[in-house]
């Protein structure tokens, strides 16, 4: 029996040395020291021994048990320390490591420019009106004095939808009719920013999807002088106080008279360069006095009311301001371009 006790103790110590986690130690403890453990079995079996052997065996078993309990406590402490060291090592923060840079989102250059334009007009008392991108032929053309088969339709090639008479607006001008019909006969001073679509060849100057900002003022005694004053004020805030402007006669069916507004070339200061095609001037918007037919379609009596309107392209304005020579950068989603803006 004494040999058996020694053997149990040897085996127990061997297994204890191999237990490396608290849960393995728990299992070990149950196996050797628990109520159903190996030593309890030995002590329970004492009664079957001859009387004279019992004290020695009992003593040996108790002593072995005490030693094993001591060994268990020591091993438990070792395992706890090892686990703690492991946790410290794995959770350690190296404060000398460089930080991870956070990517910062930016507004798209078209959005930035739209906001800049709208802000300037807001300071002149203009309100912002949101008109739909998907329009009808009636609003995009007919009510703007462009009947079916009118040659002016060829000026803006159109994306039609499968719904007859429904199209993607080619300009923001149909919004003029929507504002007028909503507010007539009140005076109007609004800007209408938004997307436009044209079924045309994409080039360095032209996209098939781009933005415009439309402006519309309607009231009594509105004249061409108001149009000029408003645009001069806008251009000087947008491009700087020294800018020169030129109003050049032009044709849009929804205005009469119609003009195109040119600004002296910001690159060469008007001397003539590649960007201004050696003219010294850059076209920045179309404008004019609202055509009497359009006023009437909007619900205003052209004998009493008059108005002016203009339409500009924020991408082209941004290109001029930042000397960008290709409009395709704006919508090709190249972050190398977008992140510089
Ligand atoms: C018009 O669209 C008229 N509706 C503007 C207008 C409004 C005139 C009110 C009179 C009164 P136009 O086609 O020129 O006009 O376009 C106006 C501006 O939109 C241009 O000056 C240009 O800046 C921009 N634009 C036109 N087509 C494109 C295109 N394909 N890509 C990028 N910008 C464009």
Report on this model:
- This protein has helices at about 1-20, 20-30, 40-45, 55-90, 110-125, 135-140, 175-185, 225-240, 290-300, 315-320, 335-340; strands spanning about 125-130, 135, 165-170, 190-195, 210-220, 245-250, 255-265, 280-290, 305-310.
- It is of the alpha+beta class and about 350 residues long.
- It has two domains: about 1-90; about 110-340, 2-Layer Sandwich (BirA Bifunctional Protein, domain 2).
- The strands form two sheets. The chain has a seven-stranded mixed β-sheet with strand order 1-4-5-9-8-7-6.
- Helix 1 (about 1-20) runs parallel beside helix 4 and helix 2 runs antiparallel to helix 4 (about 55-90).
- The longest helix is centred in the first third of the chain and has 38 residues, at about 55-90.
- It starts with a helix and ends with a helix.
- The mean pLDDT is about 90.
- The site of adenosine-5'-[phenylalaninyl-phosphate] has 24 residues, from strand 5, strand 7, strand 8, strand 9 and helix 10.
- Adenosine-5'-[phenylalaninyl-phosphate] binds near residues 206, 214, 286, 309 and 315.
Secondary-structure map:
Blueprint lengths: L1 H17 L3 H11 L5 H7 L9 H38 L17 H15 L3 E2 L5 E3 H4 L25 E3 L5 H10 L4 E10 L11 E11 L4 H16 L5 E6 L4 E10 L16 E10 L1 H7 L7 E7 L1 H9 L12 H4 L3
Parallel strand pairs: 1-4
Antiparallel strand pairs: 2-3, 4-5, 5-9, 6-7, 7-8, 8-9
Helix pairs in contact: 1-4, 2-4, 5-10, 7-9
The structure holds adenosine-5'-[phenylalaninyl-phosphate] (FA5).
């Amino acid at each position: 029996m004494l040999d058996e006790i020694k053997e149990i103790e040897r085996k127990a110590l061997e297994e204890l040395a191999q237990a490396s986690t608290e849960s393995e130690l728990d299992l070990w403890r149950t196996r050797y020291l628990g109520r159903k453990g190996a030593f309890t079995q030995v002590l329970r079996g004492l009664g079957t021994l001859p009387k004279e052997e019992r004290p020695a065996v009992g003593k040996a078993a108790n002593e072995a048990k005490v030693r094993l309990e001591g060994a268990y406590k020591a091993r438990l402490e070792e395992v706890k320390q090892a686990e703690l060291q492991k946790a410290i090592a794995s959770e350690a923060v190296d404060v000398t490591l460089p930080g991870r840079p956070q990517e910062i989102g930016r507004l798209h250059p078209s959005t930035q420019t739209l906001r800049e334009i709208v802000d300037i007009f807001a300071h002149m008392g203009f309100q912002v009106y949101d008109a739909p991108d998907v329009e009808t032929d009636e609003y995009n053309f007919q009510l703007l004095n462009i009947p079916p088969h009118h040659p002016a339709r060829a000026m803006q090639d159109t994306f039609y939808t499968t719904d007859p008479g429904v199209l993607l607006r080619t300009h923001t001008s149909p919004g003029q009719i929507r504002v007028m019909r909503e507010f007539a006969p009140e005076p109007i001073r609004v800007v209408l920013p938004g997307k436009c679509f044209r079924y045309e060849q994409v080039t360095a100057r032209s996209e098939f999807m781009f933005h415009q900002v439309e402006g519309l003022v309607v009231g009594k005694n509105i004249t061409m002088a108001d149009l000029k004053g408003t645009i001069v004020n806008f251009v000087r805030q947008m491009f700087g106080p020294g800018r020169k402007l030129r109003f050049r006669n032009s044709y849009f069916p929804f205005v009469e008279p119609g003009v195109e507004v040119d600004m002296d070339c910001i690159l060469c200061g008007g001397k003539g360069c590649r960007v201004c095609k050696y003219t010294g001037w850059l076209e920045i918007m179309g404008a004019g006095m609202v055509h009497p037919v359009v006023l009437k379609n909007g619900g205003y009596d052209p004998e009493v009311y008059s108005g002016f309107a203009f339409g500009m392209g924020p991408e082209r304005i941004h290109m001029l301001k930042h000397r960008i020579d290709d409009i395709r950068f704006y919508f090709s989603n190249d972050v190398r371009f977008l992140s510089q803006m």
